[in-house]
Recover the amino acids of this structure.
């Protein structure tokens, strides 16, 4: 059961709200907004927003643990949260807009941008941007391990990082924008698109698009295991994957555009929207 939407960041409403959320544990989550602010979720209570990036607009955040996170912005910057302290913004990608980031551990992350580039974070240092997808916007990336990541772009293509090498882009969803991907393991990924469909990856091949949301844009997905995922869309609905099937869309946020969702376990999911609101779903 989803909670009522809680207004935790009203000042961000005019700028697109809370852009990203990531829960490093069932007790702690971080949200980032389009005004360079960070919000902290601690055992059901939100605090903030606190300005951490005065010159940028955050686009995404990834927290592999409750004590480590990486956030990226629209100005090519990354910030690291390590054991209670946020770093200053560090330019890792010129002036490109960073679209997403995923951290498998506190020692390995991959960030992607709107110019087809990927940048790796390894043992405290960022690599140079590497063009892996031409000039396409890489909308989502997910790294369940330090040896594997999957990424999706706005041209219906997917790429995988396996053993240190990125594959060529593979068109898996012709005519649609892929918006997000989540991989709980290296042989289980689910991508979502702007036409209400999901596509699964089994470690070798991508499946066909499966319409689960009636043509709505599915904005985000978070999978805790191959048997559980939660997805959100631009009309304020959430959909869950359990027992091998997707639920019907459930309106959890009125007409709100849900920007992101994070599920550290199948028992807790947290979603954020374009109006600066947050919601949570808990099950026993």
């Amino acid at each position: 059961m989803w909670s009522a939407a809680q207004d935790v960041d009203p000042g961000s409403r005019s700028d697109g709200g809370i852009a990203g959320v990531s829960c490093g544990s069932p007790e702690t989550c971080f949200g980032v907004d389009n005004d360079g602010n960070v919000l902290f979720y601690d055992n059901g209570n939100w605090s903030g927003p606190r300005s951490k990036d005065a010159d940028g607009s955050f686009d995404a955040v990834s927290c592999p643990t409750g004590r480590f996170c990486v956030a990226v912005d629209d100005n090519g910057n990354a910030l690291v949260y390590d054991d209670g302290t946020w770093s200053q913004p560090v330019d890792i990608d010129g002036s490109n807009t960073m679209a997403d980031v995923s951290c498998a551990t506190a020692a390995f992350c991959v960030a992607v941008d709107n110019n087809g580039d990927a940048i790796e974070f390894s043992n405290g240092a960022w690599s140079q941007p590497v063009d892996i997808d031409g000039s396409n916007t890489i909308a989502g990336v997910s790294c369940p391990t330090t040896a594997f990541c999957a990424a999706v772009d706005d041209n219906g293509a997917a790429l995988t990082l396996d053993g240190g090498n990125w594959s060529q882009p593979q068109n898996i969803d012709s005519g649609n924008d892929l918006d997000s991907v989540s991989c709980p393991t290296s042989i289980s990924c689910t991508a979502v698109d702007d036409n209400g469909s999901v596509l699964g990856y089994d470690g070798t091949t991508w499946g066909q698009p499966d319409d689960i949301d009636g043509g709505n844009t599915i904005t985000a997905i978070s999978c805790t295991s191959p048997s559980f995922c939660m997805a959100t869309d631009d009309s304020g609905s959430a959909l869950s994957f359990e027992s091998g099937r997707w639920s019907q869309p459930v309106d959890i946020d009125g007409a709100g555009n849900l920007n992101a969702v994070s599920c550290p376990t199948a028992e807790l999911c947290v979603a954020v929207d374009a109006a600066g609101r947050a919601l949570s779903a808990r099950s026993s």
